[in-house]
Amino acid sequence: MANFRFKLFSPILAGATLNDRLVAGLGALIGIGLTGLIGEMTFGGNPLLPLIVAPLGASSVLLFAVPASPMAQPWAIIGGNTLSCFCGILVYRLVPDIMVASGVAVGLAIIVMALTRCLHPPGGAAALTAVIGGPAVVAQGFSFALVPVALNCIVLVTFGWIFHRLIGHTYPHVPPKIVSPVGTKDPAPILRAGFHVEDVDAALAELGEAFDINRNDLDQLLQRVERQALLRTHGHLTCADIMSRDVIWIGPEDSTETARALLLEHNLLILPVIDASGLLLGTIGLREIAQSGGRVGAAMVPAFTASPDTPAFSQLAPLTDGLTHAVIIQDSAGRVVGLLSQTDLLAAAARVLPAAERTGTPA
Q: Pseudo-torsion of CA 238, 239, 240, 245, nearest 10°?
């Protein structure tokens, strides 16, 4: 029974959690109810018009359960349902046989949605609804695609945008884009080695299948998979194992000229800024010194921090973003006990990865 229960509630979508699904259900509940209410207020006096069309139920599943899907974006929902409904109405008028018209309408809707970059699965239902909708659709003609279909979609998408902002999600979804931190045309450092987007496209072409995920999202996911694999195989190596322990630091009341002298004397890129009580306040480097004179406290920037037992390779992402030169290591009491630099991590990788190749361990 326990095994059956585990399988019953096991998510079929990657990254899904039970909490996500509960929130999605709440969003759909409110969104569909609000859409119907506004429909009643707008055209509720017409007994031939439905307050809300059935495809909106499927649209709400995409909008609230998988908001990052390309098929759940605003143009996909509004354009997909509206254009598909137009296709259904047109086919109904041209093809007398209802069964033939149903197939032609859905097929035409798929082609139109693909050409207009608004592929949306519920659009097929919108096209079918226009064919088999009966007197309500016949009486409205092509305007049925605007009211209630387009109006329903606009209301649902508007609420979806508000709802996702309130719960901390980004909607419409914008695929992450990593650019060079120095403003040149070069790819960001993390993207110069390993696979590229072109490799993702080639792999998709080789598989010969379409997947419901944006190419840039897929690229970012695979980049993170690479880092997780490295962390899994070398997670035993902690920050404490490779960090610098004799940390050169500076106080917030010291001058930026003093900070410059320390950086140049010890050939460092950043200095931790620590107050009299030993509390870490931030970091300062030559970039901050060049942009601001006077006291260190006025020029410092927030520090990236980790604990001594943090897996060292988990700091690969911040240390390869092109801007962060070191991670400050703090103990449980908040005291600075070390510094993990790009050089420390690179030296560790140079020793660990060849060793893994010699022993046959996946690296």
A: 160
pLDDT digit string, tens, across residues 34-61 = 999 999 998 877 887 888 999 999 999 9
Per-domain residue ranges for the chain?
2-166, 189-234, 239-358
Mean pLDDT to the nearest integer, 347-353: 74
Tokens at 104, concatenated: 């032609």
User: SS3 of 327, please?
Assistant: strand
pLDDT exceeds 80 at position 232: no
Angle between helices 74-94 and 122-132 (to 10 degrees): 30
Which own/partner contact pairs does 44-49 have at CB distance under 8 Å and 24+ positions apart?
A: 48/135, 48/136, 48/139, 48/140, 49/136, 49/140, 49/147, 49/148
The pairing of beta strand 336-341 with beta strand 326-330: antiparallel
CATH classification for the domain delimited by 239-358, as one of 3.40.50.970, 3.10.20.880, 3.30.360.10, 3.10.580.10: 3.10.580.10
What value, to the nearest 5°, has the Cα angle with vertex 339 and ends 333 and 341?
A: 150
Return the biggest CA–CA distance within the chain: 87
Residue that the structure tokens 């449980």 belong to: 332
What is the percent of the chain where pLDDT is above 70?
Answer: 87
What's the whole-number mean pLDDT along residues 137-162? 95
Q: For residues 9 and 14, give the distance between their C-alpha atoms in angstroms, rounded to a whole number.
A: 14
Token look-up 């699965």 returns: 121
DSSP of 263-309, one letter per residue?
HHHTT-SEEEEE-TTS-EEEEEEHHHHHH--SBHHHH-BPPPEE-TT
